[in-house]
Amino acid sequence: MKKFIVLLILCCASSQVWPEEATLQNIKVDTDLPAIERGMDDLMNNCHACHSLKYISYLDLLKLGIDKKKVDFMRGDQPLAAPLTGMLSDEAAMQMFGLVPPDLSLMTKAREGGPSYVYSYLLGYYNTPDGVTHNRIFPATKMPDPLGISTATDPAKREELKKTAHDIVSFLAWASDPHSAERHRLGYYVIGYLLFLTALLYAVKNRIWAGLKKH
Amino acid sequence: MKNRVIGWIDQRFPLSSFVKHDLTEYPTPRNLSYWWNFGFLAGFVLVLQVATGIFLAMHYRADASLSFDSVQHIMRDVNYGWLLRFMHATGASAFFMVIYIHMARTLYYGSYRAPRELMWWTGQGLLLMLMATAFMGYLLPWGQMSYWGATVITNLFKVTPYFGDQIVTWLRGDYSVSDATLTRFFSLHYLLPFLIIGGVVVHLVALHTVKSSNPSGIDLAARDNIPFHPYFTSKDLFGLGIFLIVYCIFVFFFPNMLMDPANFIPANPMQTPAEIVPEWYFLPFYAILRSVPNMVGGVVAMGLSVMMFAFMPFLDRSRIPGGASNRPMVKLGFYLFIINMLVLGYVGAHPVSERTLLIGHIATIFYFGSFFLIPFISKAEERWLIKRGLSPELKELMEREAREKTQSQARRRSGDTK
């Protein structure tokens, strides 16, 4: 038995010994509309050429609170209900990369680490001395450095790119779960109501059981 | 008017007497603790799962090319679809949590012992059906983990002698997990909860025959019983409030916590995920599967590990009534068993390495060992406790039981069947 306990303690103590993947930069996404809108703009400029967001339609952008004129400008002659499909055809993508770039609608949920993963991945590009670009989070990635972080040496420029990446990830986090703000808002009411109800039920229960003890 | 309607019904159907016998005046031990709430909570979650499931099924498409999209349609476009889905997905975990606590309470207080063996065995059947339902439900979103989880688990049936391959194909409806698998899993996932409801009715009829056990482990005299209503209706409703608070915190604030990232990627038969991990409620059993080096042995061990509980009424041979409250060894064994379950869960959640393998072996041996040792421990404990001296209450009860036993034997010998 003692051995067993020692073993238990050992396995708790040594968790760090496990081979870790490249460490992620942990971030907290922004949930305010200006940040999400900036992220949308950056994504449209930097990522939409290759990636689709097929579960997000122009109507969703309207519902999010983006200006109607802007949405109309973005969609051109497409209907409001049209999804944000990528601009790159699958065939062209296959030719360029040997695979189709993944849809980004659920990206911040589809990777271990979520938003922090995407953020670290976007900023994970660097150049080796002999001029080859690598990514420290996803070494074998076929995506070319989309933000140009690998060639940015000016600290101010790097800060700006970090902010861009942060905004893009905030937009993607919204896109993966558009109802999360509504869910949280409703959640506070529901929990508040339940606390009140449960307190009442406790009082009722005590009242009923108090009658029992007298006998 | 109301009385006349009820009177009319009562002449044709035992409505009033049923309500009186099984609800309002159903005798319940007054000393039941909050651990006795979990049976009611399990029933509540069952209803919740059926209700949310029926509405989800109105929008869900069981079709390999549409399932993933239809779940996103529910999450994004259906009015409060996200709420239905998160309630249902979180509800599955809540169901297992409640059932595992319900089982732990039964083990702790020895509630599986005579005369409640049939309750325990119907409960075991319900557990198996719950596991099957959850397993099939997990395929429906048609994500990577859905697909590969179903592939790994259906593949286990390969170990069936002679017909292994045929059985796997028969279960899947195809040579691999495919559209045919998805449609049959959906069909069965809709059917099984109704069989579970039937099983619950049997479970409750048995309960109302033998009545609830209680923390003392001694069947109390009639004066210690109180009517179910209003005492336990009020107590159960308060427990329900607490449960709902915890449940809603998960539904509204952490609904993705128990979802695997790989399941946000549509199923891809050409690409195995880095790691195939089942849902948390299967982890201990999955760890046992992986701890046995040989596949046949692993599958048998896993099946047995779930079924071991059914042997409890035979394994526990003590004449001391009740469970942990009267029996220190049972108490110690219970806590060690729970810790071991957590260790197995940890092993099941982590990739196979030398260390997890070693811990897995030890924990698996300990798991089965703790069942096999119960007959000996319970006997030794009985001798020790008797030598140490029992409380007068316990003694009286044991003597009464022994008397009744000899009387019934004498009756049987003399040919009296009553």
TrEMBL record, chain A:
Compartments reported by the entry: Membrane
Top-level division of the source organism's lineage: Bacteria
Keyword entries, A-Z: Heme, Iron, Membrane, Metal-binding, Signal, Transmembrane, Transmembrane helix
Any one Pfam family match given in the protein's UniProt record, by short name: Cytochrom_C1
Main subcellular localisation: membrane
One GO term describing the cellular component: membrane
Cofactor(s) needed for function: heme c
Binding site for heme c: 47, 50-51, 143
InterPro entries tied to this protein: Cyt_c-like_dom_sf (IPR036909), Cyt_c1 (IPR002326)
CC cofactor note: Binds 1 heme c group covalently per subunit.
Gene3D superfamilies attached to this UniProt entry: Cytochrome c-like domain, Cytochrome c1, transmembrane anchor, C-terminal
GO molecular function: electron transfer activity; heme binding; metal ion binding
Signal peptide: 1-19
Segments traversing the membrane: 186-204
PANTHER family, A to Z: CYTOCHROME C1, CYTOCHROME C1, HEME PROTEIN, MITOCHONDRIAL
Name by which UniProt lists this protein: Cytochrome bc1 complex, cytochrome c1
Source species of the chain: Candidatus Gallionella acididurans
Automatic annotation (TrEMBL), chain B:
UniProt region (Disordered), positions on chain: 398-418
Superkingdom as given in the UniProt entry: Bacteria
Cofactor(s) essential for the protein: heme b; heme
Record-linked CDD domains: cytochrome_b_C, Cytochrome_b_N
Domain (Cytochrome b/b6 N-terminal region profile) ranges: 5-216
Binding site for heme b b566: 102, 203
Membrane-spanning residues: 34-58, 79-101, 121-140, 184-207, 237-254, 292-311, 332-352, 358-378
Domain Cytochrome b/b6 C-terminal region profile: 218-388
Localization (cell): Membrane
Main location: membrane
Gene Ontology biological process terms in this record: respiratory electron transport chain
Binding site for heme b b562: 88, 189
A Pfam family assignment: Cytochrom_B_C
Record's keyword terms, sorted: Electron transport, Heme, Iron, Membrane, Metal-binding, Respiratory chain, Transmembrane, Transmembrane helix, Transport
Topological relation to the membrane, as annotated: Multi-pass membrane protein
Keyword Transcription regulation attached: no
Cofactor note: Binds 2 heme groups non-covalently.
One term of GO molecular function: metal ion binding
Protein's job: Component of the ubiquinol-cytochrome c reductase complex (complex III or cytochrome b-c1 complex), which is a respiratory chain that generates an electrochemical potential coupled to ATP synthesis.
Subunit structure of this chain's protein: The main subunits of complex b-c1 are: cytochrome b, cytochrome c1 and the Rieske protein.
Protein name in UniProt: Cytochrome b
